[in-house]
Design brief:
Shape of chain B: globular
Order of helices and strands of chain A: HHHEEEEEEEHEEEEE
Largest sheet of chain B: none
Radius of gyration of chain B: 16 Å
Number of strands of chain B: 0
Shape of chain A: globular
Distance between the termini of chain A: 69 Å
Helix content of chain B: over 70%
Structural class of chain B: mainly alpha
Number of helices of chain B: 7
Number of helices of chain A: 4
Helix content of chain A: 25-40%
Strand order of the largest sheet of chain A: 1-2-5-4-3-12
Strand content of chain A: 25-35%
Number of domains of chain A: 2
Number of strands of chain A: 12
CATH architecture of the largest domain in chain A: Beta Barrel
CATH topology of the largest domain in chain A: Thrombin, subunit H
Distance between the termini of chain B: 8 Å
Order of helices and strands of chain B: HHHHHHH
Oligomer: heterodimer
CATH superfamily of the largest domain in chain A: Rod shape-determining protein MreC, domain 2
Radius of gyration of chain A: 23 Å
Largest interface: A-B, 56 and 53 residues
CATH class of the largest domain in chain A: Mainly Beta
Chain lengths: 280, 171
Amino acid sequence: MKDFFRQNGLLLLLIAVLLSILLAVVGTFLGGSADPLSDFFSILTTPVRTAASAVAHWGEGVYNYVVNYDDLYQELDDLHTQVAEMEEQVRQAQDALRENEELRELLNLQEKRRDFTFASARVTAPETSNWHSTLTISKGSSSGVEAGDCVINARGELVGVVSTVGTNSAEVATLIDLDTDIGGMVARTYSAGVLEGDFALMEQGKLRLNYLPDGAQLIAGDEVLTSGRGGVYPSGLVVGQVEGVFDDPSGATRYAVVNPAADLDSLFQVFVILDFDIVE
Amino acid sequence: MTRRNQVFKWLVYTLGLLLVWVLDVHILGRLPVLSTVPVLLPVAAATVAVLEGGAAGAGFGLGTGLLWEISALDSGGWAVIFLAVCGLLCGSAAQFALTQGFIGCMICSAAVMAALECIHLLVGLFTQLAPPALLVEVAVKELVWSLVWAPAVYLIFRAIFRRVGRDRLAN
């Protein structure tokens, strides 16, 4: 055996070089789409990833039940209180909605409607790199998923954007990943900026809202939404809350550190926005 | 050793590699410590190279690199040649300069991880990913946390090596 490899060591290295070049070239030219080999591997390992994900999810549930029983009991009490408060808020919101509709009629504004088309998916593999923040989900091109589609959780909070698509799986760059580049807006002040990932903040699970206007008066806790500028991503998706506002090292612009609303570490079910209407 | 024995031997090593991959991606990948997850495939390539020698190490490194690349949807291809070269160098170093045991495995694993982190650092510096101090911090944490798991990887492949390693199946 050793003789075989000794005699063929150079041949193996040559094969390795050719494979590297092939994968690099295919990866470059496919841009956004998985190369056939990776796609095939992904299809092949789907049962393993799905099973591992289900077992891990079950394990987390058991662990939380056993270890955090008192906390869960307390949390249940808190949730009862929150539900009562939210029911009151819903009643108020319904009043506000009626009032809003009346105002729209008064101002003769054309009502625009936004229709999302969803594909639900499960998170089958977490991020496995310390240099990027990605997730693998269980839906791919066979379900209509395309690179650039937004991914949200059940509460409508932005999780990330699909970066690479396979036949039955896709890789999602979470919103704290370095590749993130989405138009953002502060809901209270309508201050627009660009949501971007930052390597230092990625480790803390946060991102930046860059290029804020000079006069923007932001405060901690302000809600940040997607602005929808350019029509690439839907508007109005909840991104997170402003944690603080800082001057850029250059001194030319200011940026806000944003804490994502979605809990990226414990995602299980997500929704891919396949189609949406642009709100003008 | 017959061709059938060779196929059986490397099939068992492949199963060991898949076990390490599952451990790496699906178990430890979900449990980051200090926001860091280990990277075990390079450690696996170094370990088998030390146990089996340079040329076999190059072949196993090639296979490990291929697994690493195709398990990510957006592959860049560089890991195949990187781990093949690492396997060849680690195996040769273990054969002629180090011991083909635990110490050799740890030294070679550290060397491979250090080389990998150097690549990450160079890419990070070149693309101005973050301040150098921060890049170094992430690289060091990744290296250390991966080496913490290197003995576990060694135990897996040593168990395989004791049963089917080198020419044992020929006896």
